[in-house]
Specification:
Structural class: mainly beta
Number of helices: 2
Radius of gyration: 19 Å
Number of domains: 1
Largest sheet: 9 strands, antiparallel
Strand order of the largest sheet: 1-9-10-11-12-22-18-17-14
Number of strands: 22
CATH class: Mainly Beta
Distance between the termini: 35 Å
Helix content: under 10%
CATH topology: Beta-galactosidase, Chain A, domain 5
Order of helices and strands: EEEEEEEEEEEEEEEHEEEEEHEE
Length: 344
């Protein structure tokens, strides 16, 4: 396998081909905003990854479909918090803090990792796959110290790919860990969501975060959803503003590998993961003139309700000194029948 280091100074505004084979083409470029990007192409489509900014997947397009949410950003912006550049397909939420903070929490939305300034980034390339990887060392005097190693793996002739993360506690004391692989999937009216979890696994969010401004119509709709099975069809876009959120906790009770799909005609978006790694799941649906997202499967170590809520619920994970946890999510798109594909 060839390892190719990436350096900020080697990127330019001109899109440059840096590697090519029968299976892949890899380009680097810099957005007008100054953010560096790596574009990995195969026969089915392409990924655009920001190697030095949290290694977020800015764009994913396969089988002619843009897999990501509609958003207000024409390009990624230099940012220290995710709301300053909320337009990507996927980002890493966490690691010591994650979710929507309460007024009593001391962290920003989704914590420090989404826009983390990576210490290093590189490509690992062979005939079968391309892996974009990086390292970020978080260290705070009198505080936490960890090493995060994210990765994105695209195989030859594939329209699905893997998003990975490993995190190791480098401190001499236990470290709190909250992590979500935040996949912002496209909203297509009429899409049908399925999964290998029962309806009773899902619970409608009862809390209202500070960024949500309820309307009387939304409150009535939300109230009606509390006594109904989780909706599966995206056929009420006018009622998905503000956002509708479902939680599923302790999902390892139902399956060892969680499988989710969202059928759009003859194609299905898919998300799959090991429930020993991620034992919680969030579904986030939002539709308005500026942002349209059907995040049908957001795997996480706990609910995204902030640090204090996770601590109070007993779902906060702690890493012992030197301990490492590894996470992997398979996502992307595949061909399916006209009636959709059940992931069970």
């Amino acid at each position: 396998m060839l390892t190719l280091p990436l350096y900020k100074h080697s990127f330019s505004s001109q899109r440059s081909l840096i590697a090519k084979s029968d299976a892949f083409e890899i380009y680097t470029f810099v957005y007008n905003s100054g953010v560096q990007a790596v574009e990995v192409r195969n026969a089915k489509g392409y990924l655009i990854i920001l190697p030095f900014m949290g290694q977020m997947v800015w764009q994913a397009q396969f089988l002619g479909i843009n897999l990501g949410m509609k958003n207000m950003f024409s390009e990624p912006k230099p940012a220290s918090t995710i709301v300053e550049t909320y337009g990507c397909f996927a980002f890493h939420a966490g690691m010591i803090r994650m979710g929507c903070p309460t007024p009593e929490d001391d962290h920003v939305l989704h914590g420090e990792m989404p826009c983390a300034p990576m210490d290093s980034a590189w490509l690992e390339i062979d005939d079968r796959q391309v892996i974009v990887k990086g390292r970020y060392e978080y260290v705070m005097g009198f505080g936490d110290h960890y090493l995060a190693t994210p990765s994105v793996t695209l195989a030859h002739d594939a329209s699905e790919f893997d998003i990975g993360m490993s995190v190791q506690n480098l401190a001499s004391k236990p470290m709190p860990l909250q992590y979500m692989c935040h996949i912002n999937a496209t909203y297509q009216e009429g899409a049908v969501m399925t999964q290998n979890l029962p309806d009773e696994a899902f619970m409608l969010r009862q809390s209202v975060p500070a960024h949500v401004q309820p309307t009387p119509q939304w409150l009535a709709y939300n109230q009606a959803l509390t006594s109904a099975a989780p909706f599966t069809v995206l056929d009420e876009p006018g009622l998905h503003d503000p956002e509708i959120v479902y939680f599923a906790d302790g999902i390892d009770r139902y399956t060892e590998r969680a499988r989710f799909a969202m059928a759009m005609g003859d194609k299905c978006l898919i998300t799959e993961f090991d429930t020993k790694q991620f034992n919680h799941l969030t579904r986030w649906i939002l539709y308005n003139g500026d942002q349209q997202v059907a995040a049908y499967a957001l795997p996480a170590t706990c609910r995204p309700e902030g640090f204090l809520a996770a601590k109070a619920s007993g779902t906060l994970v702690y890493l012992a000194p030197g301990e490492e946890r590894c996470f992997n999510v398979r996502t992307g798109i595949r061909e399916c029948s006209a009636t959709g594909a059940s992931p069970a």
